[in-house]
Specification:
Number of helices: 27
Radius of gyration: 28 Å
Strand content: 15-25%
Number of strands: 24
Helix content: 25-40%
Largest sheet: 9 strands, mixed
């Protein structure tokens, strides 16, 4: 068997609409001495249909993975099968121009010390780059390199969009890279490119997982987003054997998405209930969907999900949680007459108006057999939209983002204030409402602000620059901290910030906005860490955080920075607040709320005529 001049690796996954164009460009090459190795990485049958016209050519070979194993594994399978001394790449959504392979091979032949040759390329349909696209890396389609033992990083080690990190850096130590000086290929821009599915905020770990149907936990770090190590984060949970169903346990179908602290649902399993998941199709990065990395929830396939739900016969459908899930949860509710249906909404209704899913949101509230509101204030606001809503069918109040109790357990860390005598406060997430002049005012009182979240830092660069100009020694940046590190990390501080805002509702619920109605997810983070919660004094207004924190005696309220600093310096009073937060930690944990939630589910199920979906 003759050895070809170049092996062209084509990884493909759900790109059947692009694949014929890519292959046609390969078969049109002026250099015909090539072999093509197509790696079907667990794609649907449409990929095989798209390949059919070229299968008879002996230069084309196919490797098929039964499930998606990731770009690194796919390319390594191609490298293992390649016979040529030169490796080129053609992702199935890209295009080669006629002289592309010939120019790459000629460049490598002319420069024996060069390990990789790259072409110029067209991108975003009418732009071009002489090498790397600005702000990016060398793309697969523009590169060819000498065959060798080096292999791509695979999913088990890391998933990233950075090809330099995945492979090119391994070649750089072997020799130089050189350009052909010719524009000879096209990198095609479209919404389902791998890097777009990976990069927050339009992509991210959850859109990536759903698109590639990844069932295992990921080590995931893109060039735009936080590093996430689900392998470490969920090791303990995955190691726990599923809890046997209780004799009276429910079969609960979760529909939608789980947002933050998604593993909270395992508290339902721990109580003896069976969980199934049917997830919204286009989640945002923070909307957790399946296959769930912590396991213990059986996936319901999207393909013909109506028939799957009929076979499953759940005792109850639990629809949740944020605005992105509203259209799909509404679709499921309409299609599952006769099954008790509970709707739990966390996000602000105002964004549903903005995004055009307000009619579906109202239908969910009017027709659901049970409704769960994230705060009493949210319930009261919806009563102004649909008068009598909270009286017409069973209602319950439960914050949708509460974590498991295990994240609120363990010893506290020594406080930074004990070491340096200064005051240290923390923002776990966006510093909403804290503008640079206020950070400067805090600095004048020797109050430090510790800002967590490396991805968030990238979104707030101008804010950070402004704060550092005004308060260079009092703003501190820290990386993201996962749930299992909350208590050990954040308990070092004196207090933590909730969203800082001045309410304008004047005590009239109709005038309330999302800031007024919301219980932000960071409340649970601060409670788990035993930290007093700092917020503006909005006396006379309806503010959900204000009502709850005053009820628990768990916070500090301020009208001015000097007033707040005086409270933070009053160590006995501050310690008393910390003790009350410690005592209230269970209030912010999902486990402790499960009995009440299940009692509500059973109440909904017991109603005569439940599941009729008649308008409320």
């Amino acid at each position: 068997m003759l050895i070809p001049a170049v092996s062209v690796l084509m990884p493909t996954y759900e790109q059947d609409a692009f694949l014929p164009r890519a292959l046609a460009s390969l078969f049109a090459q002026s250099l015909a001495d090539w072999e093509a190795i197509v790696i079907d990485d667990g794609a649907s049958p449409a990929t095989q249909s798209a390949l059919a016209p070229w299968r008879a050519d002996p230069r084309l070979r196919l490797i098929r993975h039964e499930r998606n194993e990731g770009l690194g594994r796919a390319l390594n399978a191609g490298l293992d099968a390649a016979r040529a001394p030169i490796i080129a790449y053609l992702p199935s959504d890209d295009v080669l121009y006629r002289e592309h392979l010939a120019q790459l091979c000629a460049t490598l032949a002319t420069h024996p010390d060069v390990v990789l040759a790259c072409s110029h390329l067209r991108h975003h349909y009418n732009r071009s780059a002489e090498g790397q696209i600005p702000g990016s890396w060398l793309q697969l389609v523009q590169c060819a390199h000498r065959a060798g033992p080096e292999r791509w990083i695979e999913r088990e080690e890391l998933e990233t969009d950075d090809l330099e990190r995945l492979f090119w850096s391994r070649l750089r130590g072997l020799g130089s890279f050189v350009s052909t000086g010719q524009l000879s290929c096209e990198w095609v821009d479209h919404p389902l490119q791998r890097h777009k599915l990976m990069q927050e905020p339009l992509g991210g770990i959850n859109p990536f997982r759903q698109h590639y149907r990844v069932a295992a936990p990921l080590r995931f770090h893109t060039t735009v987003g936080n590093a996430v190590d689900e392998v470490a984060q969920y090791r303990a949970l995955r190691g726990e054997a599923p809890v046997p169903p209780a004799p009276d346990g429910l079969r609960i179908l979760l529909v939608g998405e789980l947002a933050y602290n998604a593993e909270r649902v395992l508290a339902l399993e721990a109580a003896g209930h069976r969980l199934y998941g049917l997830w919204t199709r286009q989640p945002y990065w923070f909307n957790t969907v399946g296959p769930l990395p912590f396991g213990h929830v059986e996936e319901v396939p999207h393909e013909d999900w109506r028939a799957a739900v009929r076979r499953l016969e759940p005792d109850l459908i639990y629809g949740l949680l944020n605005w992105q899930a509203v259209p799909f949860v509404h679709e499921v509710m309409e299609a599952t007459q006769g099954i008790p249906f509970v709707w739990h909404f966390k996000e602000g209704p105002f964004i549903c108006i903005e995004k055009g899913c307000w009619p579906q949101l109202l239908a969910l509230y009017r027709q659901a057999d049970g409704r769960i509101f994230s705060s009493p204030e949210m319930r009261d606001w919806f009563d102004t939209v649909v008068p009598g809503l909270s009286l017409s069918r069973p209602c319950h109040v439960l914050d949708g983002d509460l974590p498991l109790r295990r994240h609120a357990e363990g010893p506290c860390a020594p406080r930074l204030a004990d070491a340096d005598g200064a005051i240290h406060t923390v923002v776990p997430g966006r510093p909403i409402g804290l503008h640079p002049p206020e950070v400067a005012a805090l600095a004048r009182e020797d109050v430090h602000l510790h800002f967590y979240g490396d991805y968030t830092h990238g979104q707030w660069r101008d804010w950070i620059r402004g704060c550092r100009e005004l308060a260079p020694r009092h703003l501190h940046l820290h990386p993201h901290v996962a749930q299992d590190g909350w208590r050990a990390e954040f308990s070092r501080y004196d207090a933590g910030w909730l969203h800082a805002f001045d309410s304008a509702n004047g005590g009239e619920i109709r005038r309330a906005n999302w800031d007024d109605l919301n219980l932000p997810a960071r409340m649970a983070t601060l409670a788990a860490s035993g930290l007093p919660m700092i917020q503006r004094d909005n006396s006379g207004a309806i503010v959900a955080t204000q009502t709850l924190v005053r009820e628990l005696g768990a916070g500090l309220f301020y009208r001015s920075i000097p007033e707040l600093a005086a409270q933070l310096r009053d160590r006995p009073a501050l310690d008393a607040v910390r003790q009350r937060v410690e005592a209230a930690r269970a209030r912010f944990c999902f486990d402790t709320r499960v009995p009440g939630l299940i009692a509500f589910f059973r109440r909904v199920m017991a109603l005569e005529g439940v599941g009729s979906r008649a308008p409320g």
